[in-house]
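The freezer alarm interrupted the setup, so I double-checked each line after restarting. Inputs confirmed:
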Amino acid sequence: MVDPVIALGLVLLLGWVLLDAGLGKLRDVALTAAHIDDYRLLPDGAGAWLARPLAVFEVALAGLLLLPFARVPALLCAAAIIGMYGVAITVNLLRGRRDIDCGCGGAGQSQRLSVALPLRNAFLVAAALLAAASPGVPSHWSGWLFSLFCAAVVALLYASVNGLLANQQQLERLR
Amino acid sequence: MNNALLVSSVLLWIVVLVMAVVIFALVRQIGVLYERVAPAGALMVNRKLGVGQEAPRVMAQRLDGGTLEAGVPAAGRSQLLFFLAPDCPLCKSLLPAVLSAARAERDWLDLVFASDGDTTPHAELVRRHGLEGFPYLLSEVLGRSYGVSKLPYGVLIDEQGRIASLGIVNSREHLDSLFEAKERKVASIQEFVGRSG
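Predicted 3D structure, all chains:
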């Protein structure tokens, strides 16, 4: 559907996002469990047994994305899990519970729920589906290089947008 | 010609990448500034109480039965009222630091947890985080008397029953700053910075 250069770039981007999210959760499993419970979508205490497997699954998905034979299923799983987070955030936004921590930044970065988060997740889901619909790898070495550049730049911009969202909330707190 | 295009394209990508790194670094720096500048110490946002005032005495129900009068430290000791809630992730993540601080300062300090609401989630919180050794009060009046609007919140009451320091506690550093403020007899780290600067 899209050029293999762009598809590979998207795969690398999603791999980075999942790796970052998974490692962030593993860094403070107890806090992740508290975040999961905070969403109040699962039975009480579910966070305690779900936090670690969820984090390991995200890291594993990031690894699987890099294996050619596992790429498409891994992309679909990534779309499902990121979409699921988006739905969880939307449900809590609709409930009016904006003050809970989204738990997106892992430990150390707190970010309350906002409309920007489901939009961000929608972008990632679209990226995963687009990449899944476009198998194949670049035929020339320069294609690989451009994919890498592309992924690195978008990943940095993605992290910057996340940082700006968190900063904006810090700024509101000061007002 | 083709080669020149490739080279220029790679160079442009490198420039874009460097700019993205710079943008990210700037965003991070702004984030760090927000974290450091504003609540340098436990943040004072209390319009009700001030340092040096008599701590309100509130008779409150204990979670394990019985009552305890908050604001009245035992003879020659200080009392740290730590306000928390079971649905506040930050409070939970801070509990190990609070417990270790209470252990480290146990020769002069008594730690008292304070919250309000239904007992079940509190009992679960106490069990899961091993807070059994400390009084855990449930009283809405207590939070209101101390003007607690945001959690986690700490109030340090000195040996004379006066408020030594108070504020929102978001990290171990903020907690230590409560003790520091008591020792230096300043209301908050902000005041200390203002005084010395």
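Quick read of the result. DSSP finds six helices and seven strands in chain B.
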